[in-house]
Amino acid sequence: MLAMGVHPAVSSASSACMILFTSFTATTSFIVFGLLIPDYAAICFTIGVIATFFGQIGLGYLMRRSKRNSYIAFSIGGVVFLSAILMTIQSILGMAEGEQHSSGGICGQDQ
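^ thats the sequence. predicted structure below, dont judge the formating
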């Protein structure tokens, strides 16, 4: 969206909305198939809410102080880049340990 000239705040809000719907759908699927671990989900939800709160406060302060919207685009790009790096590291470590990918259970729960 940024490449099409959409304002960074609009792009960020649209992305957040899409992520919300995707997360809700994934969570619903895990609940329906009995794969959700309630304690783990509660901890992840709490961490997500706290991180979002502090991220919004910090980014809002930074944008008001500098009067620049580019920090929104940089934060989105940074998160995508960090995710790609961490997933690559996880895949390399898994292959080094001889881990075989299999479809099925998640978080150690096999069907």
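The mean pLDDT is 84.
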